[in-house]
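Incident log, entry 3
Record: Transcriptional regulator, LysR family (326 residues)
Problem: checksum mismatch between cached and fresh output.
Input:
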Amino acid sequence: MNRQAATVALVNRLKFKHLALLVALDDTRNVHQAADAINVAQPSASRMLGDIEEAFGFLLFERNARGMQPTPLGVVTLAYARRALAELTRFAEDLDVKRRGGHGQLTVGAIMGAAPDLLAMAVASLKTERPLLNVRILGETSDQVVQLLHRREVDLALGRLTSPLQHNDFSFEPLAREPLVLVVRVRHPLISRSSVALHELMEWPWVAQPITSPARVLFEEELARAGLATPVNLTECASIFATLQLLENFDAIAMLPESVVRDHVRGKLLVALPIEIGKSLPGFGILTRKGEPLAEPAEHFVGLLRRFSQPFDTEHGAPLAHTPAH
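Fresh output:
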């Protein structure tokens, strides 16, 4: 069989149900759980996997005592399956929105630091102009939004690159800084202090983002420069909302974007500690997939982000002022 005939045969045999199974297997590494995820019986899932591997002409997974591990060619195939399934899902959702009289769909990945200001203003303006455009916002941290962009689950993202080689896959346009502050609840013993050093905070409980996030990497770098070890009493939490809830319920410290905690500080739920931190965190911006033009709604949204980002260069460069308790 020549190469063209083999390609046609592969295309004719592969179905989107096969792609769904591959994505489920990649997520679970277990045939039974993957079968449940796509609503088929386990024997059917096993037969489908056998058909897929026969169509490709190589094994996608190695079966061993630890479960199922993708082969090197399997990793490439699974990445394609995830992209293709995400594209189909978004196409179907967009088509359904238009069928019901809407104006399509825009899906954006965004870090929480951009949400209270830049993202909120851009989305509000967009929805005022196009009320029937369905807008979806996903993610919280840069590592999450970059993964969403890589999996083609979002049209574009607001965040920052998280590894040195990602510039090969994504374009980055800087928009604004993201000042960080250390915050505690209003009943925390530290709020009576007019000054505090980083080493004095190490014995307190901390809530921090996962080590894969740029803010956490920066936090660890600041500790290293100060000759300090990671706090022993530390809770990792990827959710900003959950972090805020934790802070309000016990005497923990967290490093969070100023824009996220601003209203909590003004509402006297949290207090910013009198210490500067995180100045070297790079600014966030627009992330897009290289070599892939944006659809018109996404391109228009980028224009709104650029317009609303201008005031942030001068107005939001300083952290919240610390006000000691009286």
